[in-house]
Amino acid sequence: METLVAQPEAKAVVTTAKTMHALVYHGPGNKAWEVKPVPTIKKPTDAIVKIAKTTICGTDLHIMKGDVPEVTDGRIIGHEGVGIIEEVGSAVSNFKKGDHVLISCITSCGKCSYCKKGMYSHCEDGGWILGHLIDGTQAEYVRIPHADNSLYPIPAGSDEEALVMLSDILPTGFECGVLNGQVQPGDTIAIVGSGPIGLAALLTAQFYSPAEIIMIDPDQNRLEVAKTFGATKLINNSYENVTERVKELTNGKGVDSAIEAVGVPQTFELCTAIIAPGGRVANIGVHGKSATLHLETLWAQNITITTRLVDTVTTPMLLKTVQSAKLQPKKLITHRFRLDQAMEAYETFGNAAKEKALKVILTN
Ligand SMILES: [Zn+2]
Ligand SMILES: [Zn+2]
């Protein structure tokens, strides 16, 4: 029958939400690439970003193991990436639809007392929430709160793949390692851990021309990579006595700055064992267990120990150094996948030593 009359109930049908695919956490050891609703603007300060490229972080592996219990079942993971603005809330003034943006792993309002101090990591309405307390970037779209302060414009003609390294690992290696470690020209420094974060510290430490950079890791491949990135001495702690080797290399003194880029008690304790009097131990690693602090040997050594969550306040500066090719973060990228191959990408990144993987790029 073609002679239909208007059906009021048909008009009442709500348009179904647009859907997308995303990498979703379902409790320790469980994840899935599945259909989720496309995020929508919740507050006037929000922006919706269509993801162009994202990556997997060591932190995501910790989440997948269940080490970060605040992450709940159903959460979309990921806190790094670049994309294109799809929609902005009415209060967003720095960005408009179509703008290419770098997503910071840290969300910040720019107005609270911590933000005013440049300590975005502790923003009272942000901090590290992306892919943690709110849905993240391993998806086709992401909602970014406080978009004006949490996104950075990408200059035209940039290599966007390289800029993914600026969402988290480069500011983290630089701020928590190099700046807190107060690396100075002529210093001898040690970086414990030659993974992506340790290598990011290695790349950015060279802004300050240290005389020697000693890289310490049990994986020979990662040490060889570090050498091509500018490390001057390599120590493989799977068969070498690190403390003895460092003493040999430093006339018995130890290093001026020791940067911890692993996050286990042994590597932190190692940093405090190889530090010279007056030196700085800068912790970057995410620690799940307590470490022993040997105050009985350290109390008179004039050392400084620092901790920090990345604030990403140096991101604009780092962007300029990438633009000028002074910093070449693209070297950290070893594997590339399509975004819909996210499960495969996790498999590769999760077996980093075997796969010789540093950073993997997922392209939407
Ligand atoms: Zn990360
Ligand atoms: Zn704030």
Q: Which features characterize this protein?
A:
7-stranded mixed beta sheet, alpha/beta, Rossmann fold, 6-stranded parallel beta sheet, binds zinc ion, 14 helices, 364 residues, Quinone Oxidoreductase, Chain A, domain 1
Question: Mind describing the biggest β-sheet?
Answer: 7 strands, mixed
- Provide the CATH topology of the largest domain: Quinone Oxidoreductase, Chain A, domain 1
Number of strands: 15
User: What's the N-to-C terminus distance?
Assistant: 45 Å
What percentage of residues falls in helices of 4 or more residues?
Answer: 25-40%
Q: Determine the strand fraction and express it as a percent band.
A: 15-25%
Order of helices and strands: HEEEHEEHEHEHHEHEHEHEHEHEHEHHE
User: Under the CATH scheme, which class of the largest domain?
Assistant: Alpha Beta
Rg to the nearest angstrom? 22 Å
Q: Could you say how many structural domains there are in total?
A: 2
Unique bound compounds: zinc ion
List the total number of helices.
14
pLDDT averaged over residues: 94
Structural class: alpha/beta
